[in-house]
Amino acid sequence: MSVLAPPRKPATDGLDGIRGLVRAAAGRPVRTVAAVGNAPLGSDAGRAAAIDAADVVLRVNGFALDRSGADPVVGTRTTAVVFNRGIRATPWLFDRYRERVYLLVEPGRMTWEPAVIPGWWPHDLGPHPVPNREVTDRLAAALGLDPRAENGQWATTGTYSAWLGRMLFPEARLLLTGFSFVTDRHQDAWAHAYGEPCQVGPEHRIDREGALLTSWAREGKAEILP
């Protein structure tokens, strides 16, 4: 007589698996989430402490962390890295990578982007794709964008991280910092906390992204740290 295992409960949302992975990486109840963009910031011990005290810390693409002995800026903890295929590696990108979750946003796969991971990516690090149906389409709708347009229209990876923080843990306190388009919505190039500046991609509408995050703060759905 064979014993059949009980059927698995089907996932009701493409974010269920990601939520579980991030929660496991946090290793504790998630009451506070910090999404940290890559804009250059000045030293601020309060900001750095608030980021490191968060239960989940989301970093973006080629992020920077505070160095030992240096003035505190953005803290040192990372729970998950939200990145795209054009990522530029920094000295912190793969530090302690087995303790983190790497979340790949790939809106370009809806139009032109090939499924290629950089050749220098660690062979034992499997990135977890962020589902376009549950994330890209919903975020694009919130921004009034069409990700399936001929040349594509979608959010920056930074705004993806903020959106994921809110969607994955809607009851948690959400802290946002390092997003330059909150205060400068019309820049056509931007600097980074580490590495060279670059042009704002033509697929982005950062004025709308800045307005979205500002509206969250105004409605009490997020706190923007200076």
Specify the helix fraction band.
25-40%
Proportion in β-strands: 5-15%
Major sheet: size, sense and barrel closure? 7 strands, parallel
State mean pLDDT (0 to 100 scale): 92
How far is the first residue's CA from the last residue's CA?
A: 65 Å
Give the count of helical stretches.
5
Helix and strand succession?
A: HEHEEEEHHEEEHE
Count all strands and give the number.
9
Gyration radius over CA: 18 Å
Low-confidence stretches: none
Structural class by SSE content: alpha/beta
Description:
The chain has 226 residues and is an alpha/beta fold. It contains five helices and nine strands, in the order αβαββββααβββαβ. The chain is 25% helix and 14% strand. The strands form two sheets. Strands 5-4-3-2-1-6-9 form a seven-stranded parallel beta sheet, with helices on both faces. It has a two-stranded antiparallel sheet with strand order 7-8. It is globular.
Task: Give a short synopsis of this structure.
The protein is an alpha/beta fold and 226 residues long. The chain has helices at 16-26, 45-53, 132-143, 157-168, 206-218; strands at 32-36, 56-60, 80-83, 101-104, 128-129, 173-177, 189-190, 198-199, 223-224. The strands form 2 sheets. It has a 7-stranded parallel sheet, with helices on both faces. It has a two-stranded antiparallel sheet with strand order 7-8.
